[in-house]
């Protein structure tokens, strides 16, 4: 059984809490919002690292919004995950989400050149083609593991196509992102001692960095109509992405962007299966409901369950 806090009935640091039924978790958060909306929790005890100092959880929407609007008081530069990591580690794996101004603004100005309206318009076609390919392949086979064959593959393929990375690298990227995201799982990192854990994560990150840096150098010599070219050729007031910044942004995109979308898609199938009336409503008016349905799926799934801020 989960060890529960006596007053609110919840310990957000206990992994068992997060696998409890949705209704139980929602009720627990309702109690937190009502009785202790700003509550201190001890950090989980890692197998190989010292336990951190703990954290305060904001559980009311308006409190979260208020913290998000005051980066000078609630900064991102200390990292956006609960554990404390060295600054270089945060930069390498988090890119701009682990930065404060002026570094954050500079990075956003440069990277935004890769997300122009023209680039985004072309992306819509790539998304549709990738989805059709994946579904057609499943129809031909007759069955699939939805998480692996659809939820994980679709966002990864879109990112690969968008950046201009050969599809032959999909499995390579998939395997390394799983190590980075699932490093505390013995399925991905069997040896959970501190040295092996750190080595596995850094090695996976360095593999991804080396791949995209090599592609970046190639695009400088021979530009193409892809996002890697847009990123390496972007010039904002004479500033460019360094090879290290390109690698860090790529890791953020392929790890965080891929994994969150994977989770949302998987949750969507589960939710629509559990609520066939909602599935039928969407089927009956797909184009009309899709804009709000997608937003609702993200809210319902909550692919990111926390985002740390450090009080300055």
Quick description:
The chain is mainly α and 312 residues long. The chain is built from 13 helices and four strands. The protein has two domains: 69 residues, no CATH class; 196 residues, Cytochrome P450 (Cytochrome p450, Orthogonal Bundle).
User: And the CATH topology of the largest domain?
Assistant: Cytochrome p450
Oligomer: single chain
Spatial extent as radius of gyration: 21 Å
Note the main sheet.
2 strands, antiparallel
Count of DSSP H/I helices: 13
Low-confidence region ranges: 1-6
- Overall structural class, as computed from helix and strand content, comes to mainly alpha
Number of domains: 2
Strand arrangement within the widest β-sheet reads 1-2
Strand content: under 5%
Overall mean confidence score, pLDDT: 88
Head-to-tail CA distance between termini: 37 Å
Please name the CATH architecture of the largest domain: Orthogonal Bundle
At the first level of CATH, the class of the largest domain is Mainly Alpha
What spatial form do the alpha-carbon principal axes imply? globular
């Amino acid at each position: 059984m989960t060890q529960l806090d006596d007053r609110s009935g919840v310990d957000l640091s206990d992994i068992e809490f997060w696998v409890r039924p949705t209704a139980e978790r929602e009720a627990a958060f309702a109690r937190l919002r009502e009785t202790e909306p700003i509550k201190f929790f001890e950090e989980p005890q890692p197998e190989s690292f010292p336990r951190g100092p703990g954290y305060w959880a904001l559980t009311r929407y308006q409190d979260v919004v208020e913290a998000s609007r005051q980066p000078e008081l609630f900064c991102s530069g200390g990292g956006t995950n609960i554990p404390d990591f060295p600054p270089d580690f945060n930069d390498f794996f988090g890119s701009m989400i682990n930065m404060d101004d002026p570094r954050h603004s500079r990075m956003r100005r440069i990277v935004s050149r890769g997300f122009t309206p023209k680039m985004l318009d072309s992306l819509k076609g790539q998304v549709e083609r990738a989805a059709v390919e994946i579904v057609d392949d499943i129809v031909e086979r007759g069955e699939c593991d939805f998480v692996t064959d659809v939820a994980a593959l679709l966002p990864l393929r879109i990112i690969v196509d968008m950046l201009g990375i050969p599809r032959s690298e999909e499995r390579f990227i998939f395997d390394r992102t799983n190590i980075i995201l699932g490093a505390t799982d013995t399925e991905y990192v069997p040896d959970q001692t501190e040295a092996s854990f750190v080595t596995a994560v850094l090695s996976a990150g360095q593999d991804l960095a080396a791949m995209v840096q090599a592609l970046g150098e190639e695009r400088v010599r021979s530009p193409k109509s892809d996002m890697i070219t847009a990123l390496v050729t972007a010039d904002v007031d004479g500033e460019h992405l360094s090879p290290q910044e390109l690698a860090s942004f790529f890791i953020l995109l392929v790890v965080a962007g891929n994994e969150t979308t994977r989770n949302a898609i998987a949750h969507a199938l589960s939710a629509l299966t559990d609520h066939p009336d909602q599935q039928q409503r969407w089927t009956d008016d797909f184009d009309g409901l899709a804009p709000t349905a997608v937003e609702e799926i993200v809210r319902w799934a909550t692919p990111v369950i926390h985002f740390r801020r450090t009080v300055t």
